[in-house]
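Write out the 3D structure for:
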Amino acid sequence: MAGRIERGIAIENKQQPFLNSQRNLRGLPAQVRLADGLAGLEPGEADCLSICGMGGQSISQILSAAADRIPPVVILQPNRSPETVRRWGQRQGYRLIDEQVTTGQRAFVILRFQHQGPGDDPAYAGIDRDAAELFGPHLMRRREPHWVRRLEQEQHYLSRLDRLGPDAAQRLKTLDRVLVELSNRQN
């Protein structure tokens, strides 16, 4: 920890990661708890939560199972299916404040949410909602070159497959639409 927080709580659901976290956090203002999901966190105990390193479906399930324990600020890094996490935020009144894509061999999306209660998320205003859920409303607006390259690579990969399931076919159709729109904005 780099002094950015006063106190941290790490929750692990398996013994070995629990022991590893205890060793890694020794001497720092942090506790390590052995629990399943957010069961190791009391309601109101934290003002920010980060869940990283698992799929979007798992992250959404953890959050949905303990809605009373989720603090107002949530930072999530799904390894896959970030659209599942974006949809969770919309259903639960968490506004997507920002999102970033990591660079490197494998890109990951980091999503920052703030609880605002019921109502439409302004991040999705005036933008193709289906595309924004899949690829990120803030990312679509910023059109960063490394993000666009990732979309182009995915489009190339999907378009070369002999057969696509319905979800992949819909994703390719949405990718085509987004990339055409991005190209038209540049011209």
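The first strand starts at residue 8 and ends at 12.
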